[in-house]
Amino acid sequence: MKRNLLVGVLLCVPVISTIAGCASSRAAGERTDTDDDQAITQRVTATLAVDPEVHQLPIDVDTSNRYVTLTGTVDNEDQKRRVEQLADETIGVDGVRNRLVVTAPATVEIADGGNDNRLTNKVEAKLASHLGLRALDIDVDSRNGIVRLSGETENKEAATKAGRVAFAVEGVKSVENNLTVSEAAEDAETDDGEMSP
Predict the structure, then answer these.
(1) pTM of the model
(2) What is the dihedral of CA 31, 37, 40, 45, to 10 degrees?
(3) Cα separation of 172 and 178, whole Å?
(4) Which DSSP category does 170 fall into?
(5) Sorting pLDDT into bands at 50, 70 and 90, what band is 42?
(6) Full 3-state SS string of 10-76
(7) Whether pLDDT at 186 is above 70
(8) Within 13 Å of residue 49, how many CA atoms lie on the same side as its CB?
(9) If 0-12 CB within 10 Å is exposed, 13-18 middle and 19+ buried, where does residue 180 land?
(10) Can you tell me the distance from the alpha carbon of 65 to that of 36, in angstroms, rounded to the nearest whole number?
């Protein structure tokens, strides 16, 4: 009985060795899923890096079982769709999980402030170019296309003219004319009025 058991064990050893050898040679010769995933990640990343619409975006690409997961931020929905399309068209990709977040660019507020400053400068330049308004001390402020004029003028006509000149500047939506007639100018008008016959 012991002899039969020993013979059986000895016969199994070469068979097990052969199976193990086959398994190890197969593993050495074939690519694994991990290798495929890494290659897919590299291909998707390379594709995104050369696309003119999305190359500058902070996008992270991960691949698991041939499914690509995209994370990061984009400026708009068009960019989000473009990134997904490029990933989906990459060789070896079975599917895409698009977890990109659309965020408004941080420069929007700065740009609006810049527009207000430019509009203020344009109105000030236009007021300064009109002979009757050059000597006046007019303060100009702009916010979202609304121009506010404040300060003192020589007379009501100058205040009205300043409002019209400001409103004619491109980009001005409305004018809040808070200009007043200076006390010295009012006194001069009163004095002139008293001297008239």
Answers:
(1) 0.40
(2) -140
(3) 16
(4) T
(5) very high
(6) HHHHHHHHHHHHHHHHHHHHCCCHHHHHHHHHHHHHHHHHHCCCCCCCCEEEEEECCEEEEEEEECC
(7) no
(8) 8
(9) middle
(10) 8
Quickly list H helices, 57-155.
77-88, 107-129
Name the pLDDT band for 20 (thresholds 50, 70, 90): very low
Task: Produce one character per residue of 94-119: b if its CB has 16 or more CB atoms within 10 Å, e if not.
Answer: eebebebeeeeeeeeeeeeeeebeeb
The neighbour count for residue 136, using CB atoms within 10 Å, is 19
Strand order in the sheet with 146-153: 137-143, 146-153, 174-181
Residue 119 pLDDT class (50, 70, 90 cuts): confident
Query: Domains in the chain and their CATH numbers?
Result: 33-102 (3.30.1340.30), 108-195 (3.30.1340.30)
Q: Are 150 and 139 in contact (CB under 8 A)?
A: yes
Q: Which two tokens stand for residue 179?
A: 């200009």
Mean pLDDT of 21-44: 65
